[in-house]
Amino acid sequence: MQNFAENTDTGKSRRARELRDYFSENTDKQVDIIGDEMHGIDKNSVYADSQREKHLRGALRSEVERKINKDHIVILDSLNYIKGYRYELFCLIKHVQTPHCLVYCLTTASLSSDWNKEREDDYPYSQEILDALILRFEAPDSRNRWDSPLFTIQKEERLPFETISDAILKRKVPPPNQSTQSQPLSSSNFLFELDRVTQDVIMAVLESQKTRIPGDAIAVPGTTEKISFASNMLKQSNNN
Fold first, then answer.
1. Helix 50-67 and helix 83-96: axis angle, to 10°?
2. What 3-state class would DSSP assign to 31?
3. Which residues contact 150 (CB under 8 A, 6 or more apart)?
4. Inter-residue contact 5 to 25 (CB < 8 Å)
């Protein structure tokens, strides 16, 4: 699977459809567009409420994650105007080891407003919400690894289909890091080893307390660390 993230609400859905048509005609991949419209939202009420907007972003991210596999090209046709959210998506694609790219539909605030008023559907943004979104918009920067590779597209400019295709079909996948890589499965004797180490630590603490008083430091077997106990566990155990 290859993941696109597109920014701004100005021309992005048209670009998303162009990308879908191109990849449907030129690859054997299944192409899916994921966007706000899937959830039947009232955009003005959602983007006026930070909690509802956060919920929507989470739902879109989950849908992208569900669609990810080697046979899919996923186009996320949503605002993605918060760099922190774009970073979340970047961590997601690193986790599943798939290339991605960012398509940024660049335009002016006045042109965005004009296009919004001319929307063919029945759900344009109110001018107040549109102005607030423009004010909060965090433009992508190709120097950020989560915004790269970045394709910035002007209003009348043709999409660089071939270059975009190379970015997601031929580019090496980003390497995983400790925060995104799944941990290996435990060995078959994991529980036995855990029990043994736990017993060693318990016995060492109990033995040390025979000659120590609360506040003394006790060495932990197998490490260079020491612990300080506030009460005598041995006495508590005997009392029980």
1. 20
2. strand
3. 101, 102, 104, 140, 141, 142
4. no
Distance CA(91)–CA(97), nearest Å, equals 10
Return the higher-pLDDT residue of 37 and 157. 157
Q: Closest by alpha carbon to 85, among 64, 52, 54?
A: 54
* In the chain, where the domains are located: 2-169, 190-239
Residue-level length of the chain: 240
For Cα atoms 162, 67, 138, give the angle at the middle one, nearest 5 degrees.
Answer: 65
- When pLDDT is averaged across residues 92-120 and rounded to a whole number, the result is 88
CATH 3.40.50.720 corresponds to the domain 2-169: no
* All residues at 6 or more sequence positions from 205 whose CB lies less than 8 Å from its CB, including other chains: 218, 227, 229, 233
Burial class of residue 185, CB neighbours in 10 A (0-12, 13-18, 19+): exposed
Instruction: Return the axis-axis angle of helices 127-136 and 109-117, rounded to nearest 10°.
Output: 150
Q: What is the pTM of this model?
A: 0.69
Distance CA 84, CA 75 (A): 19
Residue 129 to residue 62: CA distance in whole angstroms: 25
Q: For residue 106, is pLDDT > 60? A: yes
The structure tokens 């798939």 sit at 98
**Measuring CA to CA, which residue among 5, 13, 15, 34 is closest to residue 123?**
13
* Closest by Cα among 166, 163, 164, 147 to 102: 147
